[in-house]
Every structure is written in C-alpha cells, then in structure tokens.
Amino acid sequence: YRIMLLNGPNLNRLGQREPEIYGSATLAHIESELRHKAEALGVTLDCRQSNAEHELIDWVHEAASSKVDFIIINPAAYTHTSIALRDAFAAVAIPFIEVHLSNIHAREAFRRHSYLAELAVGVICGCGAQGYELALQAAVSNLQQRDN
Ligand code: DQA
C-alpha cells in the first residue's frame, strides 16, 4: 500500500514549539520513526509538511492521481479553518485519519471543531507523537479489511 503523511502549518517547528503542549520530538524524528514502522508493515510512506494551505490541497490532489491508498494528516490550524482542505478530501475520496498531538477537546473552544473530522475514517488526538503510529496501524488494518 501507498500511504501519504501530511503535516500542516507550524509543525516544522515541532520540538521547539510549545513543547509542553506538543512534545519534544522533532518532525524529522517522528517521520523517520514512522518510515521504519511503515517498512516493517510492508507499506510505503511519503512524508510532507507545509505551512501553505494550497500546497496541502495540491498534495491531496496529487495523492489521487498517483493512486495513494490512504492519507494520515495533521492539518494543524487548518483543521479549524479550512473548508478548502475539506473539499479537497471530499473531491478525491481517499480514506484518511486525522491526527493531533494535543487533545484539541481540552484546549480553547475554537480548537474543538474540525472541518475534516466528519469525512475522516477516524481521529486520534491527545496521544502525542504516538498518535501517528496508531494512525499508521489503523490505516493498514483499514486497507487490509477493505481488500479482504
Ligand atoms: C494540532 C492542534 C491544532 O489546534 C493546532 O493549531 C496545531 C497542532 C495538534 O497536533 O495538536 O497546530 O493539530
């Protein structure tokens, strides 16, 4: 299977960025750990990060044309703002899991709503960097179930 990992704005600053909320691991570290896990599961993982909404949208479109089977995305602040990113997922109909490092339900009220969650296979939040691993496992099980 081909899986794409997308991380949204400010997640390139993981490790330095509010570590008490988002943890001390850098994105490069999280991505490399996840690539090893993907390899062990026999799937390919394409990891990308952008601070730009249009770039994330273009990657969702690209995922459709390049036949990506599943997307794991931490849309960061675009979670709470981007109808455009939601529409991109609706347009391509690629299954995806939404991940947040922090528990978005235990923070400011504006973080509780996600434009993407309704379309997602599932949402994992509050489990820190481990959330990405859980999402990868769940993505692979979801695809295996689909094909059984
Ligand atoms: C986040 C939560 C969002 O509310 C926030 O804007 C982020 C990161 C998380 O991973 O906890 O940038 O998606």
Automatic annotation (TrEMBL):
Functional note: Catalyzes a trans-dehydration via an enolate intermediate.
Q: Which domain of life is it from?
A: Bacteria
Q: What is its EC number?
A: 4.2.1.10
Its lineage opens with:
Bacteria, Pseudomonadati, Pseudomonadota, Gammaproteobacteria, Alteromonadales
Positions bearing the site annotation: Transition state stabilizer: R17
Name used for this protein in its record = 3-dehydroquinate dehydratase
Query: Pathway of this protein?
Result: Metabolic intermediate biosynthesis; chorismate biosynthesis; chorismate from D-erythrose 4-phosphate and phosphoenolpyruvate: step 3/7
Residues binding substrate are: N74, H80, D87, L101, S102, R111
Q: Which UniProt keywords apply?
A: Amino-acid biosynthesis, Aromatic amino acid biosynthesis, Lyase
First-tier enzyme category under EC = lyase
Q: Which PROSITE patterns match?
A: DEHYDROQUINASE_II (PS01029)
Concerning its family, UniProt says: Belongs to the type-II 3-dehydroquinase family.
Which HAMAP family does UniProt cross-reference here?
A: AroQ
* SUPFAM superfamilies for this protein: Type II 3-dehydroquinate dehydratase
What catalytic activity is recorded?
Answer: 3-dehydroquinate = 3-dehydroshikimate + H2O
